[in-house]
Each structure stands twice: as C-alpha cells, then as structure tokens.
Fold:
Amino acid sequence: MEKKTIRDMDVRGKRVFVRVDFNVPLDGTTITDDTRIRAALPTIQELRAKGARIILASHLGRPKGKVDPALSLRPIGKRLEQLVGTPVIFSEESIGPVAQAHVEKLQPGDVLLLENVRFHPGEEKNDQDLAAAFASLADVYVNDAFGTAHRAHATTEGIAHLLPGVAGMLMERELKVMGEALTHPERPFTAIIGGAKVSDKIGVIEHLLAKVDRLLIGGGMANTFLAAKGYELGASLVETDRMDVARSLMEKAQQAGKELLLPVDLVLATAFAADAQARIGSVHDVQAHEMALDIGPETSRLYAQAVITSKTVIWNGPMGVFEMERFAAGTNTVAQAMAEVHGVTIIGGGDSVAAIEKAGLAERMTHISTGGGASLEFLEGKILPGVAVLQPMDGVSKA
Ligand SMILES: Nc1ncnc2c1ncn2[C@@H]1O[C@H](COP(=O)(O)OP(=O)(O)O)[C@@H](O)[C@H]1O
Ligand SMILES: O=C(OP(=O)(O)O)[C@H](O)COP(=O)(O)O
Ligand SMILES: [Mg+2]
Structure:
C-alpha cells in the first residue's frame, strides 16, 4: 500500500520527529562508512527547506537498554554536521526534561540529534510509555529508517500510533526501488547471505528459498549450516541452537530443487585478530583451536561463478570478517563478481555496504540499500512493521 510521505504533510514550523538509521559501522568511535548518514540527507534538507523543527532519533549498535558511552551518537552528530552544512544540536538524553528543553529552543530549520534510543530498555520492547515520551517531543512523525523498518520498536512503530506518521524520502525510495527490482526478477535469481546476525536472519531463508533459484551462504551464517551437516567448526561462531533450523532448510532446499551452496574451504585463524595466524583449510579439517573467518579461495571461485551466471542477485552479509585484510578476500571476490553481472544487483546492510564501498565497487551495483535484515524481510513479501503503521496515501489523519 502506498504511504504518505513528507511531501503530503504540512511541516512548516512543526516539530518533526524523524527516525533515521544512523547505525553505521564503527572502528572504536571512528565511522568507517557513512552511507547511512548521507542517505538521510534528502529528508533532512527537504524538512529544513520547509521550515520544520527537526528532531532526529536513531539507535547505534545493541547497547541492550543500558547507557554505553562507546555507542553514543555524539560522533555521528559531528559527521552529520559536516554533511548537512548546518549546526547539529546534540541532546545527551533522548527523552525527558533535557530533550524537552532542547526541543523548545529549536527554530524553523534547526536540527537536533537525540542520544541513542536503545539506551532505554523500552525501545526494543516497543514500550507504550517510552513511545509516549518520544511522541511528546513532536507534532508529527517521519520514518526514514528503512534499515530498521523490520523492527517494531518504540521509535519505529509505537510512536506512529500516537503521532501522524509518514515516510521519509529514503524510505520511499528504498520501497520503490526494491519493489520494482524484486517483483518480477529475471532468472536465475540468486541470494547471498552471510554476516554475523545468524539467529536474526536464518528464519528469513525459508521464505527466500521460495523466491530464489540459488542461495549462497557464507560468513558467520555458513558455520551454523556446516555444523548442522556434522562438520567440526572448532572455535568458530556457531549458533548451536539454530542447527535444527539449518538442517531443515537444507532438506527443504533439496526437496524444492533449489541450489543451496555452502563453503567447501575456509580461511582459518587461531584468534579473532587482524594479525592472527591464518591458513586455508577444507571444511573437513578445522582444528579445535581454529575459527573460520572467511570463505576459502575455492568457495570464492564457486560463488563468483554462481553470481556471474545470475540475472538478479541480492546480497546481505559479508562472506568473512572483511574489516581485517586477511579475511576480506572472499567478500572482495564475490563483490567483484557482482560488478560483472549482466542484470540487477542489490547489496544491502550496514556492513555489506561498507564492504562494497571499501572495495570501490558501489557504483557498479544497481542499488545500494541501507537495509540488511530489512531488505531480506522486504523481499520475503512482508509489510515491514515500521512501514505498516504509516498513513496510507488516501487515508484519514489519526491526529
Ligand atoms: N565467519 C565470520 N565469523 C564472525 N563474524 C563474521 C564472519 N563473517 C562475517 N562476519 C561479520 O559479520 C558482520 C556483518 O554482519 P551483519 O550485520 O549481519 O551484516 P550487514 O550489516 O551487512 O547486514 C561483519 O562485521 C563481519 O565481520
Ligand atoms: O544495522 C542494521 O541492520 P543490518 O546489520 O542487517 O544492516 C540495522 O540498523 C538494524 O539493527 P539491529 O539488527 O540491531 O536491529
Ligand atoms: Mg550489520
């Protein structure tokens, strides 16, 4: 269903609560990829041009409801300030009197950034009282956080029951481009899943299997599948309580005649460190003290082949710990193959996009999405909770 956007709403002089996804990859407090911040600029600039008083809210990482200074949004505010070209006021509290006082001082066109909303335990629980505390800061709500639209949290869902809510320009564009590219995909249609959020994303694979012809699994996700097949994975990241799910997915893929590719070789390290000793080993040959931090060269070759011969490819989740040079080859090989596809290529996810930017191949993709888990759930055909709650195009305002 088409949703109203900021173009359909009178925001002049109003206090506008904008949920953005500024969950950018960090190295300490250094932003390693600012794609998600840049992606929010069109909405921010449009609202400024219309004379709105802008209140930006985001999460950063997973502080689990506690204040964690390492996950403060303050450094993100600094980067935003450079990009937007106007001062960005920072509120060290996202609700309560401190936030209220900042909001009261806002002039039309001013930009305020709230501290990490996940410092409050109620955010991820979609707590009503917390949603009300956020809602009390503003007159209207804008969701521009496509990357977090698969979460029903206080700032992505709850608040939109209390304020009239519309989509931001990034949200609008993501839904349009992803929808068009993936409704009638040219085949072979391939999905590549990797990364570290195994329990979060493994459930989506069942739905993906119904849509795609090929599924390539790498990164941390592959370890759980390999373990489910009976391989010893040593000290690798394996989610043992998801091995049953992995096993049943492999059976379903086989029954449905879908290609499900798993690594045949791995880059094995003795520690999770940039200078760790590493070797290439077969999946049959992982020692107890070793961890798989990348797919091996033979796997990379097979995956690249599967990618290049596809007509539509969607990729979420790096093939290895690409942040460390020693474990970046698998991700880079698959990225290069994506660049050579004659067809539609979409890559999504905070870290996957950082990897493709680092490889210098972003321009070669059809679409760079700010959403990882969100893209996968969108592809599933789900109406994302952060979208469902926004006002329909011809609907009546709730306010
Ligand atoms: N084999 C692996 N073991 C541990 N971590 C991995 C492995 N492969 C990839 N990763 C990590 O996965 C992270 C990204 O996962 P995720 O957040 O799911 O992807 P995205 O942000 O693209 O959606 C990266 O930081 C990367 O280092
Ligand atoms: O980075 C994100 O997702 P991604 O890692 O799938 O790209 C989003 O900001 C959502 O974060 P979350 O998975 O902690 O809810
Ligand atoms: Mg990520």
Notes: The longest strand covers residues 15-19. The mean pLDDT is 96. The first helix runs from residue 35 to 39.
